[in-house]
Amino acid sequence: STCGTPPRYVEGRQRTADYLGQVQCLNRMLLATVTRLIRDSDVPPVILLQGDHGSSMLRFWAAPSPERVPAGAAWERFGAFGAYYLPDGAAAALGDSVTVVNVLGHVLRHYFDADLAREPDEWHLSIESAPYHFVRVDPAWLAGGRPAQPLERAETRR
Fold it and tell me: What mean pLDDT, rounded, does the chain reach?
């Protein structure tokens, strides 16, 4: 089954309802696919379901600059979905938290002995009006332990 495409640029309760409908439909499709892969595979499969960022329900993008994004909106934006099926003990090495940048490297090192360095677990934020203006964000700020201050401006990467 397909989820369909909700109308673009809706606001308010309809936007939330459309988003939730898409999530529920996608959850059903993913569950069926993952169940089939695990059930029908002769060799236990490696399955990575990874988002690149959280939603924008708290409108992080409306801030005038990355330095002015509220901590709650930044935290929600960094909330990337990640679900992994990693047989043969690979999941234990990930620990309780891992940044998106290190998931694939971990999998390649574990299953294929790839010679890849682990990247620093740093978080960077930009907004749509300045997509290449990144600031490195202090996790303590996101957790509410510090005033709203990003650490530094990161290099522009394209």
Answer: 82
